[in-house]
Amino acid sequence: MRIVDFFLLWEDIGLFLYASLKAFLPIPSLEFLLIPLCLHMPSKWFLYTLEGTLGTMIGSIIGYGLSNRIGYTFLSNYKQGILLSKSNKSHLYSLFLVFIGAITPIPDFLLPYYAGFIRLPLIPFLIVDGFARYMRSFMVCYSLYHVHQSPSSDHVETIITMMILIVGIYYWYKKRYK
Question: How far apart are CA 104 and CA 168, in angstroms?
Answer without folding.
Answer: 35
